[in-house]
Write a structure and sequence with these properties.
Blueprint lengths: L57 E3 L6 E3 L1 H8 L4 E4 L6 H17 L3 E9 L3 H8 L5 H7 L2 H4 L8 H9 L4 E5 L2 H10 L20 H20 L7 H23 L16 E5 L11 H7 L5 E8 L14 E5 L14 E6 L2 E7 L4 H5 L6 E5 L2 E2 L3 H9 L6 E8 L2 E8 L5
Parallel strand pairs: 3-6, 3-7, 4-5, 4-6, 7-8
Antiparallel strand pairs: 1-2, 1-8, 9-10, 11-12, 11-13, 13-14
Helix pairs in contact: 7-9, 9-10
């Protein structure tokens, strides 16, 4: 529930900034940390490489001025670290292809590796172990890891990473805490959580002033979203709980990433200290505020952070300290129109998908959907999970109808959502 100043959570706190279900449900807080194009150098009078990135180029941000670098240089710089964190915007397929490319480069030099995934709560670690051991089919893995419940993105975005780990017998590590705990912290703060319910997560290091400011900006965006939906705004106590929930998320992931470094893995080549790689949303990594901040508090100072960014964006985003290096992901041709939007925010309650709010003037409102409606079926098929609904909406053609069965006040009601014809 992803941070990259982007997130579009199932509910206000359900994914807590992790990041970013893109457009289909229409509750998007957009942020695009981007890079721009580089210019050529003169043969007679060489000039310094520009700070902005051309497509498929790396920029190193370790010095005072950003500079272009080769992929070999970037990998060589971070491969000797204890932990390498690879960012992402969760719904961007190209970000996951980039992660796979970097993983392959790192693994070629340090085959003793562990890959941690933000997507899975710790309680599912045994399922990840069985997947890597080759004991589960893809269908069984997704079912036993409760993919539709724990992560609201299509599995196809991540399966190449999971296959890479299994093919190379690289241990996969579940980094996250359970969503139920996240909600409890967001509702009452960290101190209100009994010790026995904290899933072993320790006290987080307080955030830096810059990170708190960043979280305030995200929180204010969520408040504006609630206002548009006609809901009461959050107060300062809600913001304090919001910060607590984010810190608990960061701390849990940092603790899980640090755990393999305590002793060599028995399965690691030659019993050597493994390289720990984290697959985590950008917002938890930018400027070292989130997970890196907590890792350093745990005694892990040797950290590398690599981020994907969009080529051709704002050069001012390339600031020292943002990451060790960023990769400019080439942009794809944009579709002529935005994907269909239903205009709702969703929550998951006991495995059920419930409409948390309906946007004013939205397609959902005109179709008669209401807050509190539980979505039971989509196009005559039982709803399998959040990503299944997301996919069904995205696939709707202009002028088409999407039948939904909802449960309201104990009664099942059929609703037909008519998507506007193309203008």
């Amino acid at each position: 529930m992803p941070l990259s100043k982007p997130s579009r959570p199932r509910s206000i706190f359900a994914l807590l900034l992790a990041a970013t279900i893109s457009t289909a449900l229409g509750v998007l807080v957009a942020d695009s940390v981007a890079a721009a194009t580089a210019t050529s150098t003169s043969a007679k009078s060489p000039t310094p490489a520009p700070a902005c990135l051309a497509p498929a180029s790396w920029t190193v941000l370790a010095g005072r001025q950003p500079r272009l670098a080769s992929s070999q240089e970037v990998v060589a710089d971070v491969v000797g670290r204890d932990v390498v964190l690879l960012g992402e915007q969760h719904d961007d397929a190209d970000h996951h292809r980039w992660q796979l490319q970097v993983l392959a480069g790192l693994h070629a030099q340090r085959p003793a590796m562990v890959i941690g995934f933000e997507m899975f709560p710790r309680r599912l670690q045994a399922v990840l172990d069985r997947w890597v051991a080759g004991e589960l089919s893809v269908k069984d893995f997704l079912a036993q890891s409760e993919w539709e419940k724990v992560w609201s993105q299509p599995a196809d975005l991540y399966l190449p990473l999971f296959h890479f780990a299994r093919m190379n017998r690289i241990p996969m590590l579940a980094l996250n805490i359970d969503q139920a705990l996240t909600r409890k912290i967001a509702a009452g703060g960290w101190d209100a959580i009994p010790l026995a319910e904290r899933e072993g997560v320790g006290q987080a290091l307080p955030p830096s002033a810059a990170y708190r400011k960043f979280l305030r900006e995200i929180h204010d965006q969520h408040t504006k979203m609630r206002a548009k939906a006609g809901k009461k705004s959050f107060d300062d106590a809600a913001f304090a709980n919001f910060v607590d929930s984010q810190l608990a998320w960061d701390r849990a992931m940092a603790e899980a990433l640090a755990s393999p470094l305590a002793k060599p893995l028995a399965s690691a080549a030659s019993g050597t200290r493994p390289l720990v790689v984290g697959i985590i949303g950008n917002g938890h990594l930018r400027f070292g505020h989130g997970v890196p901040h907590q890792l350093r508090d745990l005694g892990v100072p040797s950290i590398g952070v690599l981020l994907p960014m969009t080529a051709g964006g704002n050069c001012d985003e390339l600031q020292p300290g943002l990451a060790d290096a960023v990769f400019a992901v080439p942009t794809m041709p944009q579709p002529p129109a935005e994907p269909p939007r239903l205009g709702v925010s969703l929550d998951e309650q006991d495995g059920r998908i419930v409409i948390a709010s309906v946007g004013k003037g939205s397609l959902a409102e005109s179709s008669g959907l209401q807050s509190g409606d539980r979505i039971v079926e989509v196009a005559g098929q039982p709803l399998a999970g959040m990503s299944s609904l997301l996919l069904a909406i995205r696939q709707q053609q202009p002028g088409s109808w999407l039948p939904l069965q909802i449960e309201r006040a104990g009664q099942k009601i059929e609703v037909l959502v008519k998507f506007p014809a193309k203008r």
